[in-house]
Write a sequence for this structure.
């Protein structure tokens, strides 16, 4: 295999405000032709800076290549003029970024953007460019490409847009495609589709791919070669097998172990013997009205549809599902952050749905929320002690010293130095900020915590530490959690039971281990199959769920899942299945639950 | 290269600090002028002397004289009180009321929002100067009415900016968190929404000071503004227009003072905003 791109001793400095920081130091990396190389590392490790240096786009981000060479076709990219780079960028090396919505211009149609790019690089007529664009869209498996060409970016889903962005990058048959976290913003099902697409394109176009990701499992799925970055240097590189079977560097070891740890240490031991039910939902529904024109029938988004569930004391109930499945809305309904349109919520057997102000306040004291965005959840103008002390000021009449004492106590509970209380949110790291959020949530000794994607924005190593903290707090304080996340491994790790949601309905609830090993609903199975794994032997031997989640404005008739279900029958199309008890602790809403072996085989 | 950039940064911060000090000094000077005008200016602003008419700036008349032989510097010093009061008060009233309207319509439900915003739209359709003329004409010319007129004309701008901010901030995580903790509307508004919505208002207010002075000028020019022996800066500026070709100093220096004052208020406002924001305190 010949080497296409070779990075030799690359160092890059980046200007951040008033400081000049060395972002990348002495990086050596080779990419062979037709090879997929994964650059793995946590945020701030220099992955993106390296990729931007290869395109020399780093010059526009306040950075400078301070040493080393980037050899591409016997040319040193590091020393080329920007004008000469224009001949390479897009033509020889193309790039796809994380957020396709910002990569495409919102005021032009998809077609116009293709025509512009194609005509920039090739002397063809508009018509020829248009047809070329349709061919490109076909190549990335976009259904009805001709009509998509006339649509605007906002009319397409995230997965579709990422396909468009990839097609756009392919316009000039680049030899090297740089993809920066292309699947991070997508659901696992769509992620699996995009990964398959990239593998397929590599075969067809014989291009090389530099794949940047923070997710080890994604790297394990797609890479030929993996390079692990940490604090601006590559600490280890080798083939996938070398890296995952025998990680050498301590950092790689911790990464691989924390990923494995998630898979092993699931909360399978049913340690919450308490059968006391804390929170119960009965037939909860929530509709959002859509803006409609006058004299037109009002239309609604069915966010949550007739959901019933119960949470015991000391138990964690995980909620999973693709985005748009209504898990976040359900969570907000449970803690009364939003009012339900029908159904009841029972807190310790008492109906709190239409409660008076007093019962509402009592409920708020006992149910708390931890949000995904660690930064926006904290008032930027407040010190940590004011933030954590807010619940005390609302619910108690403690003196200033009393509040300070409790704040220090709770800071110790979440393993933070009490000295943190005088800091501001922007002065501390993401993981620490989430601990502050948790501290604020537990300071009143609540019984129930809603964890809405509470660890999704954190790096893997930090994530597992926060999970450990949550488990510890649950044991010590007897907390009940509802844990919402799109990362399936995390949910499996922390949950006792897991509920799977699809288009506003819960389709299956089961104890975590059983759900993962013997899923009963075809959707559950598809979701888990799409989940990337670092188990190399399972790599790419899977069934990928095709299509995307339908619009919740007009959900499919009968069983919502029938449009994507490989086993759907006439009955599924016409009649909605009800939640059926399969065995103790297991309920599923499917006409043909996957119990019998032959039906499982059908899915292969 | 790195050393060079660091040097540049240091020079930048030195520059901004001295700029801040200069602005503060200038505003202090204007405030002193407005309180003790007689101690600052040697000539009486009311003394007319035809033989001294249209004199160019000299040691005796630092900024020259106007067509009646009045000393421009004295006029500016004595006029500063008028301008200062008009500029600052009208911003306080307009910004305060506009901010309140914006807060209510941003925070409350759709019906209140629509009602308030339509009223603001109506005010907005009337040109600012027309609005001010209307108020002055109804209530009669006086400094207080002038301030009121200018405030009302600037209401919609403040209300719109505040509303936008509140709409944005009320969906921030910490506001939801505060709600889930159990704090009421007042707590959420006072402790979370208001402090985080104010910075753009502050910037707008600092620019508003200059705008108000200029708008008051227009009214004074139309005879609807102040009826005072000593004209305010805006009126001085409009006086100079007729003599721009023969005696540029009559219009130039009042204009310069207005500009310098607006810029100084702006710089101070910026600094104050940075001071309030803990994120920029580190740098």
């Amino acid at each position: 295999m010949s080497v296409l791109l070779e990075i030799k001793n690359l160092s890059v400095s980046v200007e951040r405000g008033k400081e000049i920081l060395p972002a990348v130091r002495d990086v050596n990396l080779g990419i062979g032709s037709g090879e997929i190389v994964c650059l793995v590392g946590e945020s701030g490790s220099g992955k993106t800076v390296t990729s931007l240096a290869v395109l020399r786009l780093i010059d526009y981000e306040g950075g400078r290549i301070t040493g080393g060479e980037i050899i591409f076709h016997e040319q040193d990219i590091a020393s080329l003029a920007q004008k000469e780079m224009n001949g390479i960028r897009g033509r020889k090396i193309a790039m796809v970024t994380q957020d396709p919505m910002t990569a495409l211009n919102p005021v032009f149609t998809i077609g116009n953007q293709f025509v512009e790019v194609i005509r920039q690089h090739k002397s063809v007529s508009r018509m020829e460019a248009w047809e070329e664009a349709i061919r490109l869209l076909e190549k990335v498996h976009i259904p009805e490409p001709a009509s998509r060409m006339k649509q605007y970016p906002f009319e397409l889903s995230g997965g579709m847009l990422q396909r468009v962005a990839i097609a756009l990058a392919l316009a000039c048959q680049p030899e090297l495609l740089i993809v920066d976290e292309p699947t991070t913003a997508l659901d696992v099902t769509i992620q699996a589709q995009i990964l398959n697409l990239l593998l397929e394109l590599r075969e067809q176009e014989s291009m090389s791919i530099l794949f940047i990701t923070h997710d080890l499992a994604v790297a394990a799925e797609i890479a030929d070669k993996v390079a692990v970055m940490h604090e601006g240097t590559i600490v280890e590189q080798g083939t996938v097998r070398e890296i995952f079977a025998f990680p050498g560097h301590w950092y790689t070891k911790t990464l691989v172990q924390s990923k494995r740890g998630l898979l092993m240490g699931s909360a399978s031991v049913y340690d919450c013997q308490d059968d006391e039910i804390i929170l119960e939902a009965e037939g909860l529904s929530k509709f959002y009205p859509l803006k409609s024109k006058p004299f037109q029938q009002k239309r609604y988004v069915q966010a949550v549809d007739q959901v019933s569930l119960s949470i015991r004391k000391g138990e964690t109930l995980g909620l999973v599902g693709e985005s748009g499945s209504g898990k976040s809305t359900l969570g907000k309904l449970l803690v009364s952050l939003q009012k339900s349109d029908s159904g009841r919520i029972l807190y310790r057997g008492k109906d709190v749905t239409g409660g008076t102000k007093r019962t509402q306040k009592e409920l708020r004291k006992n149910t708390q929320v931890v949000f995904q965005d660690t930064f926006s959840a904290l008032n930027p103008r407040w010190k940590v002690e004011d933030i954590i002390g807010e619940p005390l000021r609302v619910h108690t009449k403690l003196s200033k010293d009393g509040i300070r004492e409790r704040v220090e106590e709770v800071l110790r509970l979440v393993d933070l130095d009490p000295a943190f209380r005088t800091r501001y949110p922007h002065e501390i790291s993401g993981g620490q900020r989430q601990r502050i959020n948790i501290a604020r949530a537990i300071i009143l000794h609540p019984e129930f915590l809603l964890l809405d994607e509470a660890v999704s924005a954190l790096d893997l190593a930090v994530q597992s530490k926060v999970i450990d903290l949550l488990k510890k707090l649950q044991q010590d304080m007897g907390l009940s959690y509802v844990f919402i996340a799109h990362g399936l491994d995390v949910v499996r790790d922390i949950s006792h039971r897991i509920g799977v949601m699809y288009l506003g309905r819960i389709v299956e609830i089961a104890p975590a281990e059983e759900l993962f090993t013997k899923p009963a609903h075809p959707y559950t199975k598809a979701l888990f199959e799409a989940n990337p794994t670092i188990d190399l032997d399972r790599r790419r031997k899977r069934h990928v769920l095709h299509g995307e989640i339908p619009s919740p404005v007009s959900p499919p008739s009968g069983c919502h899942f029938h449009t994507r279900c490989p086993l759907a029958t006439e009955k599924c199309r016409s009649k909605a299945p009800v939640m059926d008890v399969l065995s103790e602790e297991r309920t599923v809403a499917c006409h043909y639950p996957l119990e019998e072996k032959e039906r499982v085989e059908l899915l292969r | 290269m790195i050393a060079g950039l660091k040097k540049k940064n240091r020079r930048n911060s030195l520059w901004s600090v001295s700029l801040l000090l200069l602005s503060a000094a200038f505003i202090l000077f204007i405030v002193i002028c407005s309180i003790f005008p007689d101690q600052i200016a040697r000539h009486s602003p009311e003394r007319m002397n035809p033989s001294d008419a249209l004199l160019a700036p000299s040691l005796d008349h630092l900024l020259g004289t106007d067509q009646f032989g009045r000393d421009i510097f004295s006029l500016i010093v004595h006029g500063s009180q008028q301008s200062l009061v008009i500029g600052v008060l009208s911003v306080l009233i307009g910004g305060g009321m506009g901010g309140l309207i914006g807060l209510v319509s941003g925070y409350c439900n759709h019906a209140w929002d629509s009602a308030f915003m339509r009223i603001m739209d109506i005010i907005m359709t009337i040109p600012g100067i027309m609005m001010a003329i209307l108020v002055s004409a109804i209530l009669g010319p006086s400094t207080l009415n002038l301030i009121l007129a200018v405030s009302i004309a600037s209401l919609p701008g403040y209300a719109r900016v505040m509303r936008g901010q509140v709409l944005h901030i009320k969906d921030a995580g910490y506001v939801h968190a505060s709600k889930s903790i159990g704090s009421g509307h007042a707590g959420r508004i006072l402790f979370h929404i208001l402090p985080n919505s104010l910075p753009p208002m502050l910037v707008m207010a600092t620019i508003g000071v200059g705008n108000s002075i200029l708008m008051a000028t227009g009214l004074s020019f139309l005879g609807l503004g102040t009826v005072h022996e000593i004209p305010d800066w805006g009126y001085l500026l409009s006086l100079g227009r007729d003599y721009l070709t023969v005696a540029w100093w009559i219009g130039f220096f009042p204009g310069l003072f207005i500009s310098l004052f607006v810029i100084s208020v702006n710089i101070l406002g910026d600094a104050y905003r940075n001071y309030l924001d803990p994120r920029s305190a580190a740098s």
Notes: Chain B has a mean pLDDT of 84. Chain B touches chain A through 28 residues (CB under 8 Å). The CA atoms of residues 33 and 77 of chain B lie 6 Å apart.
